[in-house]
Amino acid sequence: MISLRGVHVHNLKHVDLDLPRGKLIAICGPSGSGKTSLALDTLYAEGQRRYIEGFSPYARQFLECLEKPAADKITGLPPAIAVRSQRGRRSSRATVGTATEAYEYLRVLFARIGRVFCLECRREVRADTPQSAADTLAELNREARLLILAPLAPPEGSEFKSLAEDLRERGFLRIVGGGRTYELDREEGREAFFRLAGCQLAAGEELAVVVDRLSAQSSPQRLRDSVETAFRQGGGRARGLVEVSPSRQEESESAEDARGVPTVLDGRTWRRIEFVNELRCATCERLYIPPEPRLFSFNSPLGACPGCAGVGNRMALDAERIVPDPSKSLAEGAIAPFSAASFRRELKRLLEFAEEQQIPSDAPYRELKPEQQRLVWEGTADGQYGGVRGFFAGLEGRKQSAPLRSFLSRWRVEQACPVCLGSRLRPEALAVRIGGKNVAELAALPITEAREFLKALPLDHWEREVGQAMLAQIDTRLAFLAAVGLGYLSLDRRQHSLSVGEHQRVTLTGVLGSSLVNMLYVLDEPSVGLHAEEMAPLREAIAALCSRGNTVVLVEHEEELLRSADQIIEIGPGAGERGGRVTFQGTPAAMQASATVTGEYLSGRRGVGAPARRRALSRGRIRLAGARGNNLKNVTVEFPLGVLCVVSGVSGAGKSSLVEDTLYPALRRRLRLEGPAALAFDDLIGEGQMDDVQLVDRSPIGRSPR
After folding, report:
1. What DSSP character marks residue 18?
2. What's the pLDDT at 205?
3. 187, 245, 171, 237: which is closest to 207 by C-alpha?
4. pTM for this structure?
5. Would the pLDDT of 254 be above 50?
C-alpha cells in the first residue's frame, strides 16, 4: 500500500488514504476540489523528491526538485513519473520523434550501421581500417613479397636532412622515392637520398617510408599492426606494394588491375594499392564527416543545416501581407508597412523614386508592369534606393527592441529552407543511408510505413547484431504510436502543429513507451482532446502499464476510463473550501450504488439530456470555400449565425485547422483587424454580417504573477 496521513496540500483537509500498489486508481471530483493537489502536488512531488535525494549533491544541483508536500506521513511510495495535461511546447525544434525518443535511437542506428553514399556521384564511400586494409593485402599476397609504406609529403630545402634523422630516430631505416629504396642507416644511402631530393623531387614527387617488409608466411597480426603504424605515420594514409611474379610481369606492365596500379621499384614490378582511413569519395574527392549520433541531430551544431541552423525554415517577406490590397496605388498606401506613422518618410522616398523611374504612383498596384513591381521591391542595382527588401534588411540590423521585432513579424512568413529543403540537417548527414533512405527520408514516412521499412531492412549478420538493440527500442515506440491511433503521423512532424489529442498521446508514448517496472505513473486527464473512438487504445495502453507491476493514478472525468479503473477515489463534495475531502473510495460498481455526485452520473440517475427546443437557423450564414490548409481536403462549409455551432471529429481530423487556423484569421483579415495569416482557402462569404470576431483558445490567460 501507498499510505498517506494528514495530507493538507492546498485545500485538502488532512486527508488519510491507503492506495493499493500495482493497480489502476482513478481520482475524480468537481474541478477545483483538490484532485491535482492529491495526485501531482502530493504523490508525484514526494515520489520525485525521494528519488532525486538518492543522487549525489553534485547531480542534484542540475535537477529541478518539487517542494516537499505538506503531510504528516507518506510511506510505500515508489519512484514517480507524471504526464501533465498541457499544450505542446511552442518550440519549433520539438518533433514527434524527439518527444517519444524514437529519433534519438534512430540517430544512433544511423551512426552505427549507416553507409555513406557520395551526394554527387551516388557511389558508396568507405573508410579503410587497419583490419580491412590488412585483409585486402593478405588476399593478394599469397606467394609474393609485400611492402607496407606510409606516404610522406616531401619537405622543402634543407629539411630533408632533418627528416632523415627524425625517421632514423623513430626506427624507420628505409625510404622510397623516385622508384628507388634508400637505406638511411648507411652513409651512401643517405647521400643518394639527398642527391635525389635536390633534383628529382623538385616537382613535388611524394615520398614514402617503409614500415615493414613481409612475406606470404607472415602472421596476420603482424600485417595488421604494420598497416596501423602506416596509417599513423602517414596521417591517415597507407600504401601496400605487392610484388608481381615474373610470369605476370608482362601482363601487369600493359594493363591496370582493378585492385591496384602497376609501379616499378628497384627494377621490379609491384602492384600499388592505396588506403585512406577517412571518408573521401575516390571519384569526386569530396570529404565526408564520419557518422556519429550528433551528426544526425538538428539541435547540434555538428548536424544542423548551416542555412537555417536546424529549424527547417526561414522567415521571408510575405507579399500578400505587405500588399494586402492591390487595388490601391502607391500614393494611397499599397505598401502597407509604409503607412505606419513612424515610416512615412519611406513612403515619401518611394514616391520620389517612382517619379524618377517613371512608375505611375496613382495607378492601382496590380496594374503596374512586372518590371515596375520588381523595382518597387528590389530597388536599383547601384544601391541608391533599396526598395521594400532594402527597407526590411535595414530594420533587421537593428531589431533589438521588442516593438521593432513585433513590427517585423507582421510582414513575414515561414518558408522552407532552400539549403536543406526542410530536412534541417547538413548535406553530410543526408549522405548516410540505411536500406536506401537517409534519416530525413525515414523520419518523413508515416509511422506505420516507417515501422514496416525498419522490419524489412536487408541487414547482414554484423549489422543485425549491432543494430538490434536500437531497432527494438524504435519498434517499441512506433508500435505504441500506431496502437493509440497515430500511425498516420511522421517522426519529423513538429510538435506544436499537433492537435491537443495528438499531443496528449505523443506525450504518453514518450513516457509509457519505456519498459520501466514498479513505478508510480501519475496521469493528469490523459483523455483530454480525444474522441470517444480513441478511448479503447488509450485504455489498453494504460492497462499494459499496470500489467508490468506499475501503479497508475489517473486524474480523470471520462466515463470509460473511470469504469476501467480498479479503484475510484472521489474528492469533493464541492470546489475550493467546499472540497478537499475524500467522499468515496472503492470499486466502480460500488460507486454506482453510492449517493456521491460522480456515482449519480455513472449510474444514470443524473445527467444532461437533449434540449426540448432548438434555436431556429434564421440569422444568416458564413460560407468558407476551398479550405485546404494542413490536412484539409478542399473543404467547403457553412457556419450558421446566432446559434451554438459545434465542429467535432477525431483528434487530428482538421477541426482546429478549419476553425482556428482558417476561419478565424480569414474573418480578422476581412474585418480589417490584426490577426495571424490564414491557411489556404478560396473564398469567404458573409463576413459583413458581423462587427468583430474573438478567439477563446486553450492558451494561458497570462504568465505574469500579477
Report:
1. E
2. 61
3. 237
4. 0.75
5. no
